Amino acid sequence: MQRQKIAAVLKNSAVGSELDVRGWVRTKRESKQGFAFVELNDGSCFASLQVVIDQSVPNYAELMQQLTTGASLRAIGELKASPAKGQTVELHAKSVQVYGTADAEKYPLQKKQHSFEFLREIAHLRSRTNTFGAIARVRNAVSSSIHNFFQSRGFLYLHAPIITTSDCEGAGQMFQVTTLDLAKLAHSKTDVDFTQDFFGKRASLTVSGQLEAETVACSVGDCYTFGPTFRAENSNTARHLAEFWMVEPEMPFYELTDNMQLAESFIRTTIREVLEHCPEDMAFFNQRIDTTILETLRNIVEHDFIRLPYTEAVDILQKCGQKFDYPVSWGIDLQSEHERYLTEQHFKQPVILFDYPRTLKPFYMRCNDDGKTVRAMDVLVPRVGEIIGGSQREERLDVLLSRMAECHLNPEEYWWYVDLRRYGTVPHAGFGLGLERLLLLLTGMANIRDVIPFPRTPKHAEF
Question: Is beta strand 306-309 parallel, antiparallel or unpaired with respect to 351-357?
Answer without folding.
Answer: parallel
